[in-house]
Amino acid sequence: MTEVLAADRDVVSMLQDRSVEMRLANLRLVETAGSGHYGPCFSCMEIMVSLYYGLLRVRPDEPAWPDRDRFVLGKGHACSALYPILADLGFFPDARLETFTRLGSMLGDHPDMRKIPGIDFSSGSLGHGLSIGTGMADGVRLAGRDSRVVVLLGDGELNEGQVWEAAAYASHRGLSNLLAIVDANKVSVDGATADLLSFEPIDRRFAAFGWVAQRVDGHSHTALLAAYREFDDRRAAEPDGPPTVLVADTVAGKGIDFIEGMAEWHVGYLGGVDRERAIASIRRMFTNESQEDR
Length: 294
Description:
The chain is an alpha/beta fold. The chain has helices at about 10-35, 40-45, 45-55, 80-90, 130-140, 160-175, 195, 200-210, 220-235, 275-294, and strands at about 70-75, 150-155, 180-185, 185-190, 190, 210-215, 245-250. Strands 1-2-3-7-6 form a five-stranded parallel sheet, with helices on both faces. A two-stranded antiparallel sheet has the order 4-5. Keywords: Thiamine pyrophosphate. Its cofactor is thiamine diphosphate. It holds the Pfam family Transketolase_N.
């Protein structure tokens, strides 16, 4: 793995701080809604923070900018991790977060591209994301644009056969501008993925479909930034080369030490004393890990 340059250490520090703040913002959204997806949101937080603050080319004041990079949240139930990022970047006022899931709000418990600036696909039913992203990647290339398309999938989502149809097509088309990231947190709403339908080793399965595949620590901004850089280097060197998949090893509920890795906390509610414990855990854990990653 290519090491992040010393000049990038300030970037890594900023990303780690953003990851803490976005987790705390997610807790506020859950408080508003009365329940939320702690497990799948917290497992992919570093992935989404590193994408939006470290890779994706977007214009908050021009959400439909034709040359923007596209992001498809295949696991749409993790949208409460994404909304605070979009608000922080300026896609919509931060005050809108206080309306999450309320009647008439544009911020539902799954993202709606017709209502929310910065959302490129209305995800809900799992399994469609990679197909949509593949079509986007093919489309922007045919249009002569240099846009990148990133799709975030859950490892439980791989159970859907449509994912593998898209994987075959993307490789056949040589969509080097397509980056898939699998949030391999090893649990889903029904339990451990290993017990339900295991696709491990996920990287080798994608490689068999003709993808460049690698595993990364999904909670390390250093590792994620290095992997993004390698993806861009390959894309520049071989425009019609294979697509890339990063299998990001993560922990469900990462940051809240008393629910980490538990399928029971795919969705739930932490209130009162438990919420205060969660806040303390996030601040404590990520203060320590921030020092290590820097």
